[in-house]
Design goal:
alpha+beta, Pdz3 Domain, Thrombin, subunit H
């Protein structure tokens, strides 16, 4: 009596399979994996038809070029999952995996992908920043010690190289052609689970985060977690359009909002690091804000597009060109500025010395202002100019806060901790902390801190700001 329903079930399954096969045949758009690997760049690797896309050809093609990255170094390394973003109320977080070991050297994990067959790999700067040793593991289980060619903390991009050849590589796409709502795939090592695949859609483009205003992030709802950092974001054509970098989270885990660095930004950094060993970013020297409807009306503008200049730094390229507070920047050369967040990435992408023309709205009229782009000083350059750098006795590398960082801090002055070692690391000081005073004496520059340190005994008390709180940390100098 039970055989009849069972046979009917088999018949139903057979009909479903037949319908599915017929759909695939009638569609004529199914790509087998062998064809997908050798397909031209313009040929999509996954098709949606009227149903969900099949991501398997994308994974088969791109998966072998995605690597697992392990990094080790001094305790409290910058890649340990928090660094500067932990201080932010928006809770944007980098998401490398920290693996602490009770005072042993810190270890972290992340992802990356091969962009050149001779061993060039892209990942996030926060995955390898401060590491003494970086190991790259391929999907075929081979492991290589990697050389960090260079990092750019401003865009959170790092370039690695391993001694290998004829490696699988990813395809690179154009993030500008990505459309909000289209399917995308992430491959990486969440929680150490190597070559894991997740999928979602592009939620928005050109997002500006308070901590990274120089990157026009791609926002997605793809599930990314600790360990996905540095892995590729891939479109249905099998092309990498971004590097998964940050998540918005209130608990440190995935909550449906993630951000990727556009691949064109990353490749610009890669080219500079490979050719010159360093990265240069353009700078104007202005503070800008959005143009609200009420502000637009008060300035006599027809719309609320543009970037409102709220302040101009003395001695900056903007000051030399004659920009003034209250100016509204409408265009950079031929590119219209729809919102203020669009301007910083455009300027940062320019080479220092590049001459540009700004269309500016001032006092009810439009005018053009020519400007020679300056250069954002790197931490190393800033250190050379004002005597900052590593302090061997204390174990801290420090620099003054930028105007933007001061705006986010409750203090009027302080020194940002960029790297930690020695006594400071043992005391628990972390990169991203802000040193406010030494033994009760406020510090505004490194020279002042050194002078106070020279007069100190074996133990000092540093007042630091962390996570919007101020705490005293005792440091035994030995």
């Amino acid at each position: 009596m039970q055989a009849i329903p069972f046979k009917r079930s088999l018949l139903a399954l057979a009909l479903i399979a037949a319908v599915g096969a017929g759909y695939a045949r009638l569609g004529g758009q199914v790509i087998n994996p062998a064809d997908a690997v050798s397909a031209p760049v313009t040929t999509p690797l996954a098709r949606t038809g009227t149903g969900l896309p099949d991501f398997t050809p994308i994974v088969e093609h791109s998966g072998p070029a995605v690597v697992n990255i392990s990094a080790s170094g001094p305790s409290k390394m910058a890649y340990s999952g928090g660094d500067r973003n932990d201080r932010m109320p928006e809770l944007f977080r980098h998401f490398g995996i920290p693996l602490p070991d009770d005072g042993a050297p810190a270890r972290g994990m992340g992802s990356g992908f091969i962009v050149r067959a001779d061993g060039v790999i892209l990942t996030n700067a926060h995955v390898v920043s401060g590491a003494d040793e970086v190991t790259v593991k391929l999907t075929d289980k081979r492991e290589f010690k990697a050389k960090v060619v260079g990092i750019d903390k401003l865009t959170d991009i790092a370039v690695l190289r391993i001694d290998a050849s004829n490696l699988p590589v990813v395809r690179l796409g154009n993030p500008g052609s990505a459309r909000v709502g289209e399917w995308v795939v992430a491959i990486g090592s969440p929680f150490g689970f190597e070559n894991s695949v997740t999928a979602g859609i592009v939620s928005a483009k050109g997002r500006s985060l308070a901590s990274d205003s120089y990157v026009p992030f791609i926002q997605t709802d793809v599930a990314v977690n600790p360990g996905n950092s540095g892995g590729p974001l891939i479109n249905l054509d099998g092309e990498v359009i971004g590097i998964n970098s940050q998540i918005y989270s209130r608990n440190g885990g995935y909550q449906g909002v993630s951000f990727a660095i556009p691949i064109d930004v990353a490749m610009n950094i890669e080219e500079q690091l490979l050719q010159h060993g360093k990265v240069s970013h353009g700078r104007m020297g202005v503070t800008i804000q959005e143009v609200s409807q009420s502000l637009a009306e008060s300035f006599g503008l027809k719309g609320s597009a543009g970037a409102l200049v709220s302040s101009v730094e003395k001695g900056s390229p903007a000051a030399a060109a004659g920009l003034e507070p209250g100016d509204v920047i409408l265009k950079l050369n031929d590119t219209a500025i729809a919102s203020s967040s669009e301007l910083p990435p455009l300027i940062a992408a320019l080479k220092p010395g590049t001459r540009i023309t700004l269309q500016v709205w001032r006092k009810g009229g439009s005018r053009e202002i020519a400007l020679a782009v300056g250069e954002i000083p790197s931490p190393a350059l800033a250190a050379n100019k004002s005597g900052e750098g590593a302090n061997p006795r204390l174990g801290l590398s420090l620099r003054p806060l930028t105007p933007q960082e001061l705006a986010q801090s409750d203090s009027r002055a302080g020194l940002l901790v960029e790297s930690v070692s020695g006594p400071a690391a043992k005391a628990g000081i972390r990169p991203g902390d802000v040193v406010l005073s030494l033994n009760g004496q406020p510090v505004g520059d490194v020279a002042q801190l050194r002078a106070l340190l020279d007069k100190s005994g074996r133990t000092i008390a540093l007042l630091i700001e962390r996570d919007d709180a101020k705490i005293f940390v005792p440091v035994d100098l030995g």
